[in-house]
Write the structure tokens for this entry.
Amino acid sequence: MTKSWMEIKNKTEESADLYFYGDIVSSEWGAWEQTDQYPDNIKNFLDEVKDKPNLNIYINSGGGSVFAGIAIYNMLKRHKAYKTVHVDGLAASIASVIAMAADKLIIPSNAFLMIHSPWVGAQGNAKDLRKMADDLDVMEEGILKIYQDNLKEGVDIETIKEMVHAETWMNGSVASEYFNVEVAEENKMAASASKYLDGYKNTPKNLMEKKVEEQKVETIPVIDNVENSIDEELELLALELDLL
């Protein structure tokens, strides 16, 4: 069953709504906030709406686990519904990959898409770190292939690769110059509470200010400085995929 907070909203005979309004995590154990999403939860959701011809997906996420996000992207792509993705505030990092599962991707002119190279906390000897770097390169290639499938005609993937390496933030209007994006009018952009915003090097100042303004007085305790290694992430993903 889906989590109690994973209520299928606005469900009709024709459509259902899915929200990514938190971080993308590997499993239930990493879901510190009720808005955090993970592959098994999305699998359960999609099983419940497997006969719906339309799926509306709303994103306001700072990103999270690469492996979890790619698993979610693949599940969404397999779902037969016509998928309309709305970036309400932010689709950053792996959340930008999830957004690419759309049949129609809509980003308001004051919302953001952010792309960057994957990164991970690492420890170990020189051999371990060299392998980690090689693994990150493979992960980046997989992400670039997803972006390539959604490029606007005439845009070269090498351009996107440079933007990925530079950590590039784009509002809806700019994103539409590179990707198949429909630009919507400005909306009242919701702040993203993602912890990842503090770690990105080019986060727009207004996003950080909005995050501080709307920060909750009461927060769910989190464990600081916990970073899964790539091997641990792969093990978690393997367990999740066994359930598919």
